[in-house]
C-alpha cells in the first residue's frame, strides 16, 4: 500500500502534459508521458530499495523531488526570462509588480529551502529542521498570496496559477513529515539510524 501511495505522489510531483488534437503533438506527448512514467518508476524503485538506509524512503524522495524541482525551476526561468523584465510589460505596466509578487517570493523561498535542506543533509544537525519547517510554512503563505493576486489581477488564468497550487500542496505534505517522521528524528536528532 505504501508503494502505491508513493507511486501516486511521485506522479504528482512531475508536470502533467495535456494532450492536443494534432497527431504530431499527440505522438510527442505520448513519448513524454512514457519517459515521465519511466522516470517515476526509477525514482520509486530507488526510494523503495533504500528505505532501510539513513537517507532513504520518503526522506530520499523529498530530496529527489527538491533537486528535480530545482532543475525544472531553472528551465522555466530560462524559458520565460523575458517575462521578468519590465520591458515585457510595456502594454500593462500596472500588472508587472503583481507578476513579480506572484513569482519572485516563491523562487526565493525555493532557493532557501534547497540551501537549508542541503545543509541539513550534510551536517545532520537537527537545528536546520525547524528552519526548514518555517520555510515550508512561508511557502504556503506565499502561494496563497500569489493565488489571490492571480485571481484578482490575472483572473486565475495565468500559467503561474497551477504552479502556485502545486507549490502550496508540497509544503502541506512535507510539514507534517518533518514534524512526525521517525526517520527525521532518528537521522537528524538522535543520530541513531541503523542501516540494514
Automatic annotation (TrEMBL):
**Residues of the signal peptide:** 1-18
- Transmembrane regions: 28-47, 59-78, 98-116, 128-149, 161-180
Q: Pfam families this protein is in?
A: DUF2569
Carries keyword Manganese?
Answer: no
Q: Which UniProt keywords apply?
A: Membrane, Signal, Transmembrane, Transmembrane helix
InterPro entries xrefs = DUF2569
Keyword Isomerase on this protein?
A: no
Q: Which domain of life is it from?
A: Bacteria
Can you say what this protein is called?
Answer: Uncharacterized protein
